[in-house]
Amino acid sequence: MTQTTLLPSEPDLALPAAKPPAPRPITRIGPKPRWQLVDLRELWAARELLFQLARRDVSVRFKQTIFGFAWAVVPAVSTMLVFTVFLGRLGKLGEGDPLYPLFVLGGTLPWAFFSSAVAAAGNSLLNNQGLVTKVYFPRLILPLAAFGTPAVDLAIGCGLLFALMAWYGVVPTAGLVLLPLAAAVLALAAAGVGILLSALIVAQRDFRFLLGLGLQLWMFATPCIYLKPETFSDDTRALLPLNPAYGPILAFRQSILGGPIDAYALGVSALVSVLLLFVGLLYFRRTERSFADVI
């Protein structure tokens, strides 16, 4: 009788089956709802692009320059010198006030940020027409990324302002905590105007030439840069905050150099800035589809 011995089977040496690749996310490009002014989810997904564009503008601005970041404060300082000499001394507006140069610099610094941000945002679509016509991305990224260089200039300028305050022996007060609020309202106003102008310039290039002239006139229409609020009557002071740059520039200087914050001026200018931002986003949203065709 034959006995058969069954040996245990060898373990399965075959490699495990490879896992199927994870499905790639599907991006659907289609018309946005008419009620939606800004797609925050889309902007957040493109935040890396915004950062890269802003960093590119900053690096190009100071590339191959001898004085480097010193050029960031040249516009504000040169304007301060002009106002100090012609208005402060010849015009006797700063007569008896040894801190008048510091007073003017506290106004020209935020104005330089506002004007450069509006100009950069207004020309952002036209300056990046190669991207607009070839690649899909949220077009709103371009005017927002244009704020990178003005923000760096403002930060460097604030360092110079604090150094001059130490030179003059001026000690910052507790109102300094309101500086970010004033800067945020000023950025809000610049964003509203810049976004609106960026769409207008694409549609009609005449606005590009009017932009520089308009900013020059706007500076003189913001008298808190070079004049003290006490110079004006109560009725005039009630109307000046309708200029969206007036309230935040006034609060910016008051928060650094001391003095009571004009809550009325800051609040009214903030409301006007929100309205401008709404109008700018609305017009940008309605004309965004035609940018690649008419730019």
TrEMBL record:
It is a multi-pass membrane protein. One of its GO terms (molecular function) is ABC-type transporter activity. The chain crosses the membrane at residues 65-87, 99-120, 140-170, 176-202, 209-228, 263-284. Residues 67-287 form the ABC transmembrane type-2 domain. Keywords: Cell inner membrane, Cell membrane, Membrane, Transmembrane, Transmembrane helix, Transport. One of its GO terms (biological process) is lipopolysaccharide transport. Pfam families: ABC2_membrane. It is found in: Cell inner membrane; Cell membrane. The keyword Methyltransferase does not apply. Its main location: membrane. It comes from the Bacteria. InterPro entries: ABC2_TM (IPR013525), ABC2_TM_bact-type (IPR047817). Residues 1-28 are annotated as: Disordered. Belongs to the ABC-2 integral membrane protein family. PANTHER family: INNER MEMBRANE TRANSPORT PERMEASE, TRANSPORT PERMEASE PROTEIN. This is Transport permease protein. It comes from Limnoglobus roseus.
